[in-house]
Amino acid sequence: xxxxxxxxxxxxxxxxxxxxxxxxxxxxxxxxxxxxxxxxxxxxxxxxxxxxxxxxxxxxxxxxxxxxxxxxxxxxxxxxxxxxxxxxxxxxxxxxxxxxxxxxxxxxxxxxxxxxxxxxxxxxxxxxxxxxxxxxxxxxxxxxxxxxxxxxxxxxxxxxxxxxxxxxxxxxxxxx
Length: 176
Description:
Layout: E1 4-10, H1 30-46, E2 52-56, H2 59-68, E3 77-81, H3 89-97, E4 105-110, H4 114-122, E5 123-126, H5 128-136, E6 143-148, E7 160-166
């Protein structure tokens, strides 16, 4: 049956232009919007099949998902949850454990430090460059690809293998 896959996407660069906005309501900055075509193309070319998308309710996370949505199957289930806005790692692991066993691929769109900490907690092994980048920093728009050798209901720290960490500014521009 093969391994499951967990993609963790940190929202792209957000705007701090309007100081009156609550953090939850901050939109993407121009730089964040500019990164979306590269991420979308990468997902379309390299992502495993995604059955479920879990997304924070924060505006910047929803806008990031909207920007890459066309790279996913039309019938993918999308769930937006307030609990995915800046949670602790145990909360994220608990949410992922609630994913039905039939699901083979999950894309979670969220925030730092939550995602950086989650990658660090789940990745017992991984590609050395990707692990080094996680240890240094998971920048905005970064996409981690984790191989999950167990059902999501059995997810525990250290069981995953980090296969890659893609950073938008290092991706080529998509073909026109």
